[in-house]
Write a structure and sequence with these properties.
The protein is an alpha+beta fold and about 270 residues long. It is about 25% helix and about 30% strand.
């Protein structure tokens, strides 16, 4: 069985308060986009007594393969259901450390695929609960639709929003942004324009109203990321923003807008939303 985990962008991201447990409450809208990895699982015969083998391709993934979120997803369900041994093939196309949720999507899609392949009969609510144990934004990829998120990014409610027909440009520079450092510079506050109110407006009115609080801490540290956003507006973006805590920046354009991709350094993805 093969599936194609997709990325997301954050439409607005306000850090509203610091919690007693040290985490932060926030508000954002997760919006799925057609930038995809490829994930395949087959009943297999891993070497030795191992229950799984992970084969990786595409963009290199640093770290021990056993710590990959797709492996953690398999282990989690294996503890309850004693799953058959599997071969896992993961081809990475979504850049890591980009604020695009690629690893989280892989994990959530792994849970859904195992549920279907081995007829585990888990409901979406149960799958979301498992996904939340893997990461705060993993669960949003279970239903995989435009979603308003509160709390630490784990309290969901659907929103009526379609960006179909817009051209989306995503630029991931060769810059690593530490989420920990990005949070360290944040000053929580209640937004003047809540995300849910702004996204109800036409996209042409989002500029200046729909904000990502991480930009205030990330752009001074990495001016090149801020410059990407400025260049998108120079080229006619209706709205542009950093996604998550970075380092990718996206812009929404009309499909007729001519975009000079050579003005951007790094990975550039030009997508039509539909």
């Amino acid at each position: 069985m093969i599936t194609f985990p997709n990325a997301k962008i954050n439409l607005g991201l306000n850090i509203t308060e610091k919690r007693p447990d040290g985490y932060h409450n926030l508000e954002t809208v997760f919006y799925p986009i057609p930038l995809e990895d490829a994930l395949e699982v087959t009943a297999g015969h891993p070497e030795g007594n191992a229950k799984y083998t992970l084969h990786q391709g595409g963009i290199p993934i640093e770290g021990d393969p056993d710590t990959n979120l797709v492996v953690k997803a398999y282990r989690m369900l294996d503890e309850r259901f004693n799953l058959p041994p599997v071969d896992i093939h993961l081809f990475k196309h979504i850049p890591s450390g980009a604020g695009l949720g690629g690893g989280s999507a892989d994990a959530a899609f792994m849970l859904k695929m195992l549920n279907e392949e081995f007829r585990l009969k888990l409901t979406d609510d149960e799958l979301e609960a498992y996904a939340a144990r893997l990461g705060a934004d993993c669960a949003v990829f279970i239903r995989n639709r435009a979603t308003y998120a509160e709390g630490i990014g784990n309290i969901f409610s659907p929103v009526s929003l379609s960006l179909n027909g817009y051209r989306l440009l995503v630029v991931k520079p060769d810059i690593f942004v530490s989420t920990r450092n990005a949070f360290a510079q944040i000053r929580p506050h209640r937004p003047e324009h809540p995300v849910r109110e702004v996204i109800a407006l036409p996209v042409e009115q989002w500029k200046g109203l729909l904000t990502n609080d991480f930009e205030d801490s990330v752009f001074p540290q990495f001016p090149a990321i801020g410059a990407i956003k400025e260049e998108m507006y120079r080229q006619g973006a209706l709205y542009a923003s950093m996604s998550g805590s970075g380092s990718s920046v996206y812009g929404l354009f009309t499909p007729e807008t001519s975009i000079d991709e050579s003005r951007f350094e790094g990975n550039v993805f030009n997508l039509l939303l539909k």
